[in-house]
Amino acid sequence: MEREIRIGKEKYSMSSVVFNIINYLGFTVFTFICVYPFYYLIINSISANHLSANGSIMWLPKEIHFENYKQIIQLSGLGRAAFISVARTALGTLLTTIASGYLGFMFTQKKMWGRKFWYRFIVVTMYFNAGLIPIYLIMRNLQLTNTFWVYIIPLIVQPFNIILVKTYVESISPSLQEAAEIDGAGILTIFWKVIFPISKPILATIAIFSAVGQWNSFQDTLVFVTDQKLYSLQYLLYTYLNQANSLAMLMKNSGASGQNMQAIAMQQTPTSVRMTISVIVVLPILFIYPIFQRYFVKGIMIGSVKG
Amino acid sequence: MDSQKRLAAKKKAQGFKYFLMIAPFLILVLLFAYYPLYGWIYSLYDYRPPLKLSQSEFVGLKWFKYLFSNTGQIKQLLQVLKNTFTMSSLMILTSGLPLIFAIFLNEIKASKFKRIVQTLTTLPNFISWVLVYAVAFALFSNSGMVNSVLVDLGIVDQPIKILDSGDHTYLKMLLWSTWKGLGWGAILYLAAIAGTDQELYEAAKVDGANRFHLMRHITLPAMVPTYFVLLMLSIANFLNNGMDQYFVFQNAFNKEQIQVLDLYVYNLGIGTSNSIPLATAISVLKSLISVTLLVSVNGLSKKVRDESII
Q: A120 CA to chain B: closest CA distance, Å?
């Protein structure tokens, strides 16, 4: 018999207690590793810049100031990129969510001519991909490269989302639609007034995933866009990360001058530029994520049921 | 009879109307999923960008042959394939980690702690690879936190080159993708655990099973079907590492090891050089192999588990 330990009324075996300690410790460490980098970025972006530049701020911010944000927001291109990112996220999410709902619903209409064929026509595209270069060439032929629409139009029809909605709508009793039809409602009215409101949970999940995807998207700017006016925030961050040295020089010259300690603390360094922009880009995710986490979890579960 | 016929005709007309109502979306699918396949013909021409395809010379399979023609090209291709195979194999070898993560997290009884762990460990999955790179730079560059601690403690004299180095590139890439994906990957398995019949546990406890027996003989088997599907999918995606991660971390020092197939195709066709026909030829081969892999893996799944994964 193993040795046992008594805590309160419960009895635990020795190995079980040791396991618990290691388990809790392990998860604490891993969770810390997941969170600390974000914390590190934030405290460094508001600390004195000469301290953040040599990596000496680890736990608490020192000599807190917000000069970095004031200066970086004025960087040319940042406001525009933020606008592009917000616009593509809002419009892209809206269109793909409505299209997914609409198509998912329409594919439940047994009357539709060639329904099964067209459904497969869409679904099968999940399983092949012409490849990056052919897609680039076609986007260019369609004159979508270097336009805002390259962020939106190709992403409207998402097969996986359509499957999700179709499955969901099929689980709703068809009598709802029949009742509306007897009342003389057309198919669009039924979609908009009956199906759309009922499908809100699944559509919310689709919207959240699509929004995060749009916000984080980076590759489409890289491949399809050379016009700086159309840079997304993610892409701008990438270029800034690589040009932080020259940016810091630029801002040093135009920004706060003088040699007193306070000025030095606020003078931009490559590190302060990088960290501040990173925080600006990650902040929306940090805010939105805890609020919508249950949708994310729900989304992946629904997806797994479909298999 | 007549009215029945009219009803049938009306139904048919309505069915066609429904089709027309989704037709614009079908056109989008045609344009963005099927039409790019037509782009494959660029691999058969001696295409140079400012010129049009119609002005280019048809060269047949020249570019496909070129891939295997001279030793320099073969060597490069082999290196890229080695990188791809190594990264994909490492991913498959570590594909059990989310499963283990889920089993162990399931053993945590403090529900608040569990929820916090779950929320915070899934967070990295929702940031872009550019931001992961930003984080990497902040912590691991020459003036980053890690190096400043190491130098302060006197463990090293000079900052270690962690990012600007070609050493252990595979391992570093694996660690970054584990950091980003582990917590999220576990969620599917946690769902599978939640769906396990609680009576099984009770019954086993009555039979004298301790918690390790339960973990090994009840929780683990409950997750095998999910694991199997994900494993099959990752085998089907053996050639598709994606390029975001490798692109942001690529630099002059690690280029040799970091160029996986997806990144290589990008660099070759758009990024550093401009060999569009050659890059297209590789895209074509890659797509064909991927589809073949998917079909075979699906066949395997049908045989082994009597279940299709697609």
A: 11
